[in-house]
Amino acid sequence: MMTANTNSPHPKPRAGITLGLRQNLAQFMLLVAVNALVGGTLGQERTVLPLLAAQVFQLDLYTSALTYILAFGLAKAATNYFAGTLSDRYGRKPVLVAGWIIALPVPLLLIFGPSWGWIVAANVVLGISQGLTWSTTVMMKMDLVGPSRRGLAMGLNEAAGYLGVAGAALATGYIAATSGLRPGPFLLGAAFIAVGLGLSVLTVRETHHHAKLEAASHVSVHAGTHAELSNRDVFTLTSFRDKSLSSVSQAGLVNNLNDGLAWGLFPVLFAAAGLTIDRIGILAAVYPAVWGAGQLVTGALSDRIGRKPLIVGGMLVQAAALAMVAVGRDFGTWLAAAVFLGTGTAMVYPTLLAAIGDVAHPAWRARSVGIYRLWRDGGFAVGALLSGIIADAYGIPAAVGVVAALTGASGLIVAVRMRSTDHRAAG
């Protein structure tokens, strides 16, 4: 599906292209809808797969059961890295369409897989697809709105994605409770993929030239002093050298580390306490629902008060919520913890992306976003492995407690090391 971009490496922006949310509202809202479908494709697994591991495939060890999250995280993290480079080379739209095409076999593998290895393979494919589709919708919205509304744009993007996750998690929980763990829940995912592919092919337009327009008048904040950087330079800046970019990268990793824990072990913990599948589905949905809806506020708020306060505060709220899960024993406590965990994540998630966009030069911003998302989604793999090992040795509450401590420490690192990155503070 990808064809080489016939433009020169640094073409002049096309006439008539303008930056701004209002100026590009129709295309922006279309991309919001597309990302909701991307989230729904992921959400089809949130309630059902942990139960499938225990009840259908009889996986006793948590480490074994969490292999699908490990596989998903590694595949998505690696694909995120390449998504930025591919979208700069070939354009955003071909990468988005390719991601949807790659997702086509996922529901079939989940429905008909006769062994756990098939489920793991499905999550490798899903991780590749999510790395291409979600990364590209992030880049395209950054391209369209320019610097002044970047926080709002990321809030809307991530809100749509995680409301899609929440809606699918809730719906599949009820479907599984009434018609079984397979095939019903995954037919919903198949519908999401079909609609997402159709919209991306027929209605989404390329946005790469919007990034070129912004690059022509870009004012550096910290790391963006040079438009021409090699892939290696961008990687080291984003990962280690620039204090703001590297602080954001480690916070993203820890954020998804605790999300991997929530995805893989929370349903098992709730089931062991005697909760029914539909109540587990509610808890699995409330966390990403609050996360998703909250970003409608926190993304725009970060444009006004700055990125750093929301990131530090959000990580500390997440840590407190995880501690509540560890000590909780009933639905009410876990429901409150899910609300707090979603709130903390909403404070962090779009703000981290906006901070990357603030610092990185538009000429290599897509690569920097991809590298940040490499670290962030690598947190899924780290979380699955770490929490599985601790849960097997000491139980799920101990695993949750350790991840709570790591999340709090990550917030403190941001407080000490990160500089203000947003254009409001820098101006």
From TrEMBL:
InterPro entries recorded: MFS (IPR011701), MFS_dom (IPR020846), MFS_trans_sf (IPR036259), MFS_Transporters (IPR050171), Sugar_transporter_CS (IPR005829)
Location(s), subcellular: Cell membrane
Gene3D superfamilies according to UniProt: MFS general substrate transporter like domains
Alphabetized UniProt keyword annotations: Cell membrane, Membrane, Transmembrane, Transmembrane helix, Transport
Molecular-function annotations in GO: transmembrane transporter activity
Protein name (Swiss-Prot/TrEMBL): MFS transporter
Pfam families attached to this UniProt entry: MFS_1 (PF07690)
Transmembrane segments: 21-42, 62-83, 95-112, 118-138, 159-177, 183-204, 310-328, 334-353, 396-416
Protein topology in the membrane: Multi-pass membrane protein
